[in-house]
Amino acid sequence: MSTETALRTTGLVREFRGFRAVDGVDLAVREGSIHALVGPNGAGKTTLFNLLTGFLKPTHGRIEVHGKDVTGLVPEKIAHLGVARSFQITSLFDQLDLREHVQLALQGRAGGGLRFWRSHKVLDRHASRVAELLEQVGLADLATVRAGALSYGRKRALELALALALDPQVLLLDEPTAGMGLEDVERTVDLVRRVAHGRTVVFVDHNMHVVGSLADRVTVLQAGRVLAEGSYDEVRRDPDVVTAYLGTQPSEDEA
After folding, report:
1. Taking the C-alpha atoms of 213, 29, 230 and 241 in order, what is their torsion angle to the nearest 10 degrees?
2. Which residues are bridge partners to 23 per DSSP?
3. Which stretches of the chain score pLDDT less than 70?
4. What 8-state DSSP symbol labels residue 146?
């Protein structure tokens, strides 16, 4: 893991009619690390993700990707700088099969947009990369299955393949295990570990088992501010974090 910073925010603020959803956040994510953002509902996690990826513009502050100022850039320009994200809610085309989804993502990255369907030559140009991406997320044997027939966990894996089609250096995952059963959660944890090799991953998750299993570093948010930061073991014992989550501090035996 590098000592370089892949993603940095300085004094980041986002206001909605006077309400500060993100309130002066300073964040530094090391290159090659897996960094978790956690906090109670309403802590500002998704708003922060939307700021980092250009879906919202900050009221104040600065965002850098590998030292380049990206503050206020639109999502497409940030994506071209090597940042990709998955969303909390799945957004797939039920009637398209998995191969077609990945082909569309690859064609979009190549600048072809929706013209991908006009020619089999265009489709065939991406065939090997499509197969590679589906293999990477464990869906190679389902390439011709329609997305609407997938389980929820498999849909999230397909969305990850679509994000990886952008060949990102920084990958942001919003609630990657939300709504999953235990088997899908464990499969997704293993998948995130695999795709993290050679890139930086930032993720939001409420499942503390997932956070503890994956994260090199954890930032805890509360009311839009950074409450604590450190390793998983450090933040889970932080008195302020315990109070924020439980309303009380544990005894020595509980800690």
Report:
1. -90
2. 13
3. 1-2, 87-90, 109-124, 246-255
4. B
Q: pLDDT at position 1, please?
A: 59
pLDDT at 91: 73
Confidence at residue 255, expressed as pLDDT on a 0 to 100 scale: 43
1-82+169-192+199-255 topology per CATH: Rossmann fold (3.40.50)
In the chain, the DSSP E strands lie at 5-16, 19-30, 34-38, 60-65, 68-69, 83-86, 170-174, 200-204, 217-222, 225-230
Q: Where in the chain do CATH 3.40.50.300 domains reside?
A: 1-82+169-192+199-255
Q: Which residues of 64-103 are buried (b: 16+ CB within 10 A; e: fewer)?
A: bbbeeebbebeeeebbeebbbbbbeeeebeeeebbbbbbb
- Residue 151, both tokens: 């389980």
The amino acid present at 72, given as its one-letter code, is G
**Could you tell me the two tokens for 54?**
């250009």
- pLDDT tens digit sequence for 141-188: 999 999 999 988 888 889 889 989 888 999 999 888 888 888 889 988
Q: Tally Cβ neighbours within 10 Å of residue 183.
A: 10
Beta bridge partners, 226, equal: 221
Contact 177, 186 (CB under 8 A): no
Task: Write out the two tokens for 142.
Answer: 């389902």
Contacts of 198 (CB under 8 A, 6+ apart): 32
